[in-house]
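Exercise: predict the fold of this chain.
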Amino acid sequence: MFVTALLAPLIALGVVPLVLLSTIGWSAWAVLGGWLLLCAVLVTLDVLLAANPRAVVVTRSIPERARLGEQVLTSIAVQNTGTRTLHGWLRDAWQPTAGAPLKREQLLVPPGERRRMPIPLLPRRRGELSSEFAVIRSRGPLGLAGRQARHDVRGALRILPAFASRKHLPSRLARLRELDGNTSIQVRGQGTEFDSLREYVRGDDIRSIDWRATARAGTTMLRTWRPERDRHVVILIDTGRTAAARVGDSTRLEASLEASLLLAALASRAGDHVHLLMFDRAVRARVSGVEGAALLPALTDAMAPVHARLVDTDWTAAFASIRRLTTRPSLVVVLTAQDAAESARGFLGAFPDASRATTLLVGSATDDAIVELARRRDSRLDVYLAAAAEQTIRDAQVVADAVRRAGGEAIAADPEALPPRIADRYLELKAIGRL
């Protein structure tokens, strides 16, 4: 049972008979008690005449998956199996991060009929969103009160990463086609294989001349090379406490996901094998052995429920997990935040030995606000903040230098620029034959 906002004005209206009848000798308490009794009778009558909210069948229509930040159209169907017309409201019990409308949906369902109401969602968080029940209120004909019932009809929706960096994919694919097709590279490296023969033109590298083919053809022939396929790209995403830090409008983990998806899409088109690990003190997500068109759906599905944990990452175990994935020549991309020498000791101590077969990139999303703070000198407070910002920048540079001395490559950029920079470095490694 519930009462509506009309009950309060009805009770307040009792002041009129109270004043009129008191002037002719009626007892004020008797008049007040009689009016309250009348209101109670009207409320009871309204409840009894309201349609039974339990005599309905509630069903949902929800897509299984959606991307973060995109509107999702869900709906609820209410079928009235009772004998009275259902006048009332419906409220769906989504959590606040689902972005469901706050207003209650109005219901008008005649007996034996069915009505479907759209419930648009605008998710603000990755992961599993759910609504365990829906509440239906049926008001009486007087509009003073009604009946209420909860229907346990569960609905679930998995919110995938936004993959906003996919806007950079067409331009990178065009560059990949230049490497792998129309403009085959002419300089052979450890990551290139023979492609075809063509006639020599001025400016070509004479080291690529095929003398046997030249003797047979009677003209100078040149070998061309193309990037090898079937290489391995291992992406390790740090989900420890540093991944929870705010960088720009989101967290560092979200920037890592964007960089991973762009690199994975590019490497998959290039014919390479992509492996994903999300790790802090244990494996939080793992994708391996998935190829072709199924790769990106598998990656986004695995990433969706993973969030940063407030623990220090066990880097020894993390790099050991990489070694268990593949022993083939590979590109290892570690997405983390090593911007302080003290917190980077465990990371640098577990850093794998450099080899010709493996290239290791360390990508980190940085905050442009720190650079802005380091430039300000308008007030005493700005000077102190600038000093702290400069110290942070120097610490990050110290860690980056240590990564390079250990045989890796450090790439740091803001969340918008990090995905294309890592993708560009991947293409450069393909072009020079290191992958």
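Check your answer against the key: The chain is about 35% helix and 30% strand.
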